[in-house]
């Protein structure tokens, strides 16, 4: 048993001693069997939330209406979810109401993929009702039960299937792929935020080309926000051997391939319900990427982009087949006389007090002029030099 599971064993044992069943479930079991690192240990139990709360000193109601209680143990949190079925699906979305049940089988049946429907007990015994172990072995992504039915219940599962194909570098089983092709339009019923999570995990997976190939083959991408008419972009994407490190890189690449300007890029990111912070990062990196690919990187581009944006743009440029010397770019950046307006040896206050300049729009223009001259190395960044330059102007 991996250490994370060992640490959680007393919790399983406490639940069992009270006469209930408890198992490790979901991603942690799958990843353990694959020898991958696990992030969070999820536990499923026949005990109802109130019964769990009665068993432990410290609990938090993280999702009690869905049957989830978090148990705090030695500074660790463990989510314990009551066995449940999701019987009342409406509009192809995950239901709001869940029904608690006492049987593990019912709980595993409502899970999305066979490799995600494995349970492990305190002794390390695996419960595998849907040949999930075989599929892990054969590296196959397969829906639990009738794929088409399962995608009707919750259309996000199609996106998850493709995401796991990329993340684990597994292949999509034929019937599951076929069911995605048939039901792809149902994805439009799903909240953008949920699609977003899967899309980014797909793009940052072990083999994005594989997930992308499935997105294209099933046409599922056409039902993602703003991708409907992007067939050429997706064809291009599938041909790249992508190795991206973060979300900013994903969107910078997309915006570049979609040939978007700043306004359109912001619109794309808004449609995907991205944060303002991410929008800023992407727009900055995109501008730098264009300069890099057009060989027009100068002091102004370096200055406006900053080290983080340069790293993002360079990584994306490499994906597109450009030969980039990031070290060189970073050295040029480091050699800039100033890194921001704050570094300028004068500011508005000094100009008003010591150069007799009046507050107003003219002041901003003068500061911008000094900033430019310093950046180009035409003026030293010293107060006396800058004030003298203004006096002779
Ligand atoms: P990750 O490593 O990305 O967290 P995970 O498999 O743990 O992968 P979660 O989203 O954390 O994914 O979900 C935990 C488990 O809940 C899954 O393994 C699966 O059994 C089940 N599950 C999650 N989403 C769905 C869904 N939309 N439909 C059915 N079962 C789901
Ligand atoms: Mg998880």
TrEMBL record:
tRNA processing among keywords: yes
Enzymatic reactions: a tRNA precursor + 2 CTP + ATP = a tRNA with a 3' CCA end + 3 diphosphate; a tRNA with a 3' CCA end + 2 CTP + ATP = a tRNA with a 3' CCACCA end + 3 diphosphate
Residue span(s) of domain Poly A polymerase head: 22-142
Alphabetized InterPro entries for the sequence: Bact_CCA-adding_enz_type3_sf, CCA-adding_enz_C, CCA-adding_enz_firmicutes, NT_sf, PolA_pol_head_dom, PolyA_RNA-bd
Domain CCA-adding enzyme C-terminal: 243-389
UniProt keyword list: ATP-binding, Magnesium, Metal-binding, Nucleotide-binding, Nucleotidyltransferase, RNA repair, RNA-binding, Transferase, tRNA processing
Similarity remark: Belongs to the tRNA nucleotidyltransferase/poly(A) polymerase family. Bacterial CCA-adding enzyme type 3 subfamily.
NCBIfam families associated with the record: PRK13299.1 (NF009814)
Further facts: A single active site specifically recognizes both ATP and CTP and is responsible for their addition.
Name under which the protein is recorded: CCA-adding enzyme
Source species of the chain: Ligilactobacillus equi DPC 6820
């Amino acid at each position: 048993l991996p250490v994370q599971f060992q640490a959680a064993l007393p919790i399983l044992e406490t639940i069992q001693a009270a006469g209930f069943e408890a198992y490790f479930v979901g991603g942690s079991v799958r990843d353990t069997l694959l020898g991958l690192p696990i992030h969070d240990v999820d536990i499923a139990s026949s005990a109802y939330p109130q019964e769990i709360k009665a068993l432990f000193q410290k609990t938090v109601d993280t999702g009690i209406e869905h049957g989830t209680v978090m148990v705090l143990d030695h500074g660790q949190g463990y989510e314990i979810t009551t066995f449940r079925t999701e019987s009342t699906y409406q509009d192809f979305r995950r239901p709001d109401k869940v029904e608690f049940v006492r049987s593990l089988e019912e709980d595993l049946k409502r899970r999305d993929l066979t490799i995600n429907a494995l349970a492990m007990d305190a002794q390390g015994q695996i419960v595998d009702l849907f040949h999930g172990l075989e599929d892990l072995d054969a590296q196959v992504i397969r829906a639990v039960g009738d794929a088409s039915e399962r995608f009707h219940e919750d259309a996000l599962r199609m996106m998850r299937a493709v995401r796991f194909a990329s993340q684990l570098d597994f292949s999509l089983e034929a019937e599951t792929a076929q069911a995605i092709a048939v039901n792809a339009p149902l994805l439009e019923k799903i909240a953008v935020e949920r699609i977003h999570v899967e899309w980014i995990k797909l793009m940052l997976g072990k083999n994005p080309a594989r997930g992308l190939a499935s997105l294209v083959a099933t046409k599922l991408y056409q039902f993602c926000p703003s991708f409907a008419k992007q067939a050429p972009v997706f064809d291009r994407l599938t041909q790249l051997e992508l190795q991206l490190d973060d979300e900013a890189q994903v969107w910078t690449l997309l915006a570049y391939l979609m040939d978007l300007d700043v306004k359109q890029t912001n619109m794309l990111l808004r449609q995907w319900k991205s944060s303002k912070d991410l929008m800023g990062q992407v727009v900055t990196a995109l501008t730098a990427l264009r300069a890099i690919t057009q060989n027009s990187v100068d002091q102004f581009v370096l200055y406006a982009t900053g080290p983080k944006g340069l790293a993002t743009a360079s990584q994306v440029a490499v994906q597109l087949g450009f030969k980039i010397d990031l070290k060189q770019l970073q050295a040029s950046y480091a050699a800039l006389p100033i890194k921001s307006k704050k570094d300028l040896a004068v500011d508005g206050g000094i100009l008003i007090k010591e150069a007799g300049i009046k507050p107003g729009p003219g002041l901003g223009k003068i500061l911008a002029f000094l900033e430019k001259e310093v950046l180009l190395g035409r003026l030293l960044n010293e107060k006396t030099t800058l004030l003298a330059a203004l006096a002779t102007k």
